Write the structure tokens for this entry.
Amino acid sequence: MATGAAAVLAASVLIGSIPWAYLIVRAATGEDITSHGSGNVGAMNVRRTTGSWSWFALAVIADASKGLVPTLLVKTVLGGVPPLVPASTAGAEAMLAQAAVIGAVLGHNYSLWLALKDRRLRRTGKGLATGAGALFAYDPRYFAIVLAVGLAALAITRIMLVGQVAAAVALPASAVLLRSPDVLFAVVLSAVVVIAHARRLGGLARGEEPRMYIDDSGGPRG
């Protein structure tokens, strides 16, 4: 099982590493997305770079698919669990689906394909859309709770970073609430996403984080 989980993790990292946002912006404008906005290779930065909500929507779908597709395949094919049923019902095989989720998010956050291009490994994303797609495939209940908490925090504070971090923190809380055996997995995935936001948390504490940062020059890098 451990060997299988390692193989799934590696394959999912490679899939998660596909820099769709980078490719979309290159095709649409010829620009390098990492030189704009936050510098992240993610959907919101596609909006900041192109000024287009259509390209943003395409990037969201593409990034979410990086998490959804490998997790769904592993869950249904290797775990034998129907699409809308929580993967934890597969018992030990749930580890394979968990590896797919974490691998896809890690791949998005630290794209190996961009590392080959740039000849250095660096953080390239924050894993929100990819993680959301993966969670929907893994256990739709987590997806619903995380989405609701994130949107509520964003609506109250009007600060995207708060909504993003609140969504990540809500994951292990939801596992506890649902009395799921996924608590450790949820803590690890939450930590991966929160760590990706760590650089900006200091600015948030100092009141420097902008509200609804959607423009190219409207907020900090990171």
